[in-house]
């Protein structure tokens, strides 16, 4: 069997290693450059590869192709493979048949990384032999090749879900759905929503789907479509016979005749959106029959995720906050919503079709100045020019942070929450967040 892997990144190299171990004839092809560290792995494992090209003769003869999430379906090589009738799948789809482990699949426009890390933290703290993969850390396929975990917590993007055929998580979570990546979905929101719900398409009556009952896109989809999975809702305002809710500053979860309660003030993560992430993760813990005391302890000591509302430093009584992971408007909405002091907001980057109107009331209420950090800031200036007194344009992180310092007074906050992708000025959102933290430390 010939396995061709398109993309020589984390998921590609992981898939190649697993494929080789399972006896496939493996070839890795990357249209860009492959990182030196990954090249070394391929060479040590005697796996053939190429970079900066796709040699069609070596690709179109595949029995199965694993494509990296970053490659769009409309790229020429994918179109040719589909026309030739070759199966094109994602890493998760390829790797799952090679492990007996239970999988918890987590998707959503926002909150999926925090929910994935928190779920993994809860299960690991309870002593379970559990791996963490998908969009985070070491690739799922690589771990299946080298480790023996009983369960995996997987962060799944819509792009990974587009490439599944038979994969089904034992427990699925959809944190929420808001417009994102519409450039990959013909600018049709319903295509993107359907893509997220692929997570439940193969689930059976013995599986679970945990979802946000306050989220319009999710509740609409569930009204109009069927899933066999048992539904576990969570909500900040509604209560359920079976599900998770917040009542008088208490988180309450009822699942399989069992109950869990915890005062929200003892939960380490702050903000309404994080209460939802905590409800989703704790619902998994209850389904996995973890003791209430263990869940409480884990929720109170969880450290959070880098680049997500991460408190960097307080300088002259001004708090600097790194929310570089906010690459869409909905994520920035949560960030601004959690601010309770006058805020200098650093925003901008590559816009994925953003509508800034939904931030308007929060900006009026909380933002004293806006610093536009991007190559093209027109849309942000048009949206907020009349709402905020001070708007400054900068094109590097040092200038952004120094300008922010000049515009603050004691008791204010500086929030990097870009609402955009980072590719105009940075390698990725991590690079953007690290540069912000470095610039703050240099003040």
TrEMBL record:
Pathway of action: Cell wall biogenesis; peptidoglycan biosynthesis
Mur ligase C-terminal domain span: 307-420
Transmembrane segments: none
GO MF annotations, alphabetized: ATP binding; UDP-N-acetylmuramoylalanine-D-glutamate ligase activity
Sequence positions that bind ATP: 108-114
Main location: cytoplasm
EC number assigned by the record: 6.3.2.9
Residues covered by the Mur ligase central domain: 106-284
InterPro entries per UniProt: Mur-like_cat_sf, Mur_ligase_C, Mur_ligase_C_dom_sf, Mur_ligase_cen, MurD
GO cellular component: cytoplasm
GO biological process, one term: peptidoglycan biosynthetic process
Catalytic activity: UDP-N-acetyl-alpha-D-muramoyl-L-alanine + D-glutamate + ATP = UDP-N-acetyl-alpha-D-muramoyl-L-alanyl-D-glutamate + ADP + phosphate + H(+)
Location relative to the cell: Cytoplasm
UniProt keyword terms in alphabetical order: ATP-binding, Cell cycle, Cell division, Cell shape, Cell wall biogenesis/degradation, Cytoplasm, Ligase, Nucleotide-binding, Peptidoglycan synthesis
Entry's family note: Belongs to the MurCDEF family.
HAMAP family: MurD
Biological role stated in the UniProt entry: Cell wall formation. Catalyzes the addition of glutamate to the nucleotide precursor UDP-N-acetylmuramoyl-L-alanine (UMA).
Name of the protein in question: UDP-N-acetylmuramoylalanine--D-glutamate ligase
């Amino acid at each position: 069997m010939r396995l061709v892997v398109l993309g020589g990144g984390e998921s590609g190299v992981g898939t190649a290693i697993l494929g080789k171990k399972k006896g496939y004839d493996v070839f890795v092809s990357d249209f860009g450059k492959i990182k030196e560290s990954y090249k070394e792995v391929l060479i040590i494992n005697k796996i053939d590869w190429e970079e900066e090209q796709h040699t069609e003769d070596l690709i179109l003869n595949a029995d199965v192709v694993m494509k990296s999430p970053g490659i769009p379906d409309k790229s020429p090589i994918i179109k040719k493979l589909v026309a030739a009738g070759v199966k094109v799948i994602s890493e998760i789809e390829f790797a799952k048949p090679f492990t007996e482990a239970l999988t918890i699949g987590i998707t959503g426009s926002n909150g999926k990384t925090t929910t994935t890390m928190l779920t993994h933290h809860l299960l690991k703290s309870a002593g379970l032999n559990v791996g963490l993969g998908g969009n985070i850390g070491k690739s799922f396929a690589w771990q299946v090749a080298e480790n023996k975990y009983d369960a995996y917590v997987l962060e799944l993007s819509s792009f990974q879900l587009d490439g599944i055929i038979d994969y089904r998580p034992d427990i699925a979570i959809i944190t929420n759905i808001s417009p994102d990546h519409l450039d990959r979905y013909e600018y049709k929101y319903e295509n993107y929503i359907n893509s997220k719900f692929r997570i439940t398409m193969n689930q059976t009556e013995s599986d679970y789907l945990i979802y946000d009952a306050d989220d319009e896109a999710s509740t609409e989809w569930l009204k109009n479509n069927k899933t066999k999975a048992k539904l576990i809702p969570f909500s900040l305002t509604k209560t359920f016979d079976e599900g998770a809710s917040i009542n008088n500053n208490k988180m309450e979860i009822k699942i399989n005749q069992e109950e869990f309660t915890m005062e929200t003030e003892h939960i380490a993560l702050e903000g309404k959106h994080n209460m939802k992430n905590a409800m989703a993760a704790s619902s998994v813990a209850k389904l996995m029959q973890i003791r209430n005391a263990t869940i409480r302890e884990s929720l109170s000591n969880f450290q959070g995720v880098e680049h997500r509302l991460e408190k960097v430093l307080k300088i002259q009584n001004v708090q600097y906050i790194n929310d570089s992971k906010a690459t869409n408007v909905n994520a920035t909405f949560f960030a601004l919503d959690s601010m309770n002091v006058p805020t200098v907001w650093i925003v901008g980057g590559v816009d994925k079709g953003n509508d800034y109107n939904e931030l308007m009331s929060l900006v009026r209420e909380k933002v004293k100045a806006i610093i536009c950090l991007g190559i093209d800031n027109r849309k942000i200036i048009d949206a907020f020019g009349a709402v905020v007194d001070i708007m400054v344009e900068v094109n590097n992180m040092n200038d952004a942070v120094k300008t922010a310092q000049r515009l603050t007074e004691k008791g204010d906050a500086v929030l990097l929450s870009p609402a955009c992708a980072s590719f105009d000025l940075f390698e990725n959102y991590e690079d953007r967040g690290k540069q912000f933290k470095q610039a703050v430390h240099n003040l």
